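Customer ticket, subject: "Can you confirm the structure for Class I SAM-dependent methyltransferase?"

Message body: Hello, I'm evaluating your service for our small team and ran a test protein. I'd like someone to confirm that this is what the system normally returns, since I don't have a reference to compare against.
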Amino acid sequence: MTTDILQEQIQYYRDRASEYDEWFFRQGRYDRGEPHRQLWFSEVADVEVALGESKPSGDILELASGTGLWTQHLADFATTLTAVDASPEVIALNKQRLNSTSSKYSIKYIIADLFNWTPSQQYDFIFFGFWLSHVHPDRFTDFWQTVKNALKPDGCVFFVDSLFNPESTANNHTKLDRQGYSERKLNDGKTYRIVKIFHEPLQLKESLQQLGWSGNVHSTTNFFLHGLVHL
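Agent reply: Thanks for trying us out. I re-ran your input and got the following:
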């Protein structure tokens, strides 16, 4: 794997910033009808419940924080909240979402490429949503070492990501496969190539155990996996 695709992946999410929420809210090219939307949000709610049950608290770190869809949940639990993302465009949208939600939140934002970022402190709770699938296997161990370096000794990590499901992507995207890469389009038709690894819960749990992590990885029925792990 070259650094070219990682830079293309960063550029894709920068250019996609204003469109990103369409994916989550099943709008535009991601609209597959009301039954699909109801099923999707039912499973989103399951993940939100699991996140609450993981009891995030204290100093919280969110990696690949995006437009704030999960930041807004974490902020309710945090004493301090740090959000890191490589895209200044999504950071700007994140700030807008959190400011419109409540003025009580004080969040430290860091613009950084996570593959080249070094945490300057440790945190009680670390979260990343729909990021692990963009970590190439060649960088999997190094990424989890970064997470380990950022975690307090008694801290824990919660993550959510996508299961392999053709209906989770846009209706005009290239058919999903398990080759480790995906071609993605913006609304204007411009295309990008990104890393996209669809982990299986059991396999991912075993991979993390080999790196010294304990915990569980679960899946919803159709669309998501989520895990809670600790050292």
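A couple of notes from the result: The radius of gyration is 17 Å. The chain has one domain: 3-230. Feel free to reply with more questions.
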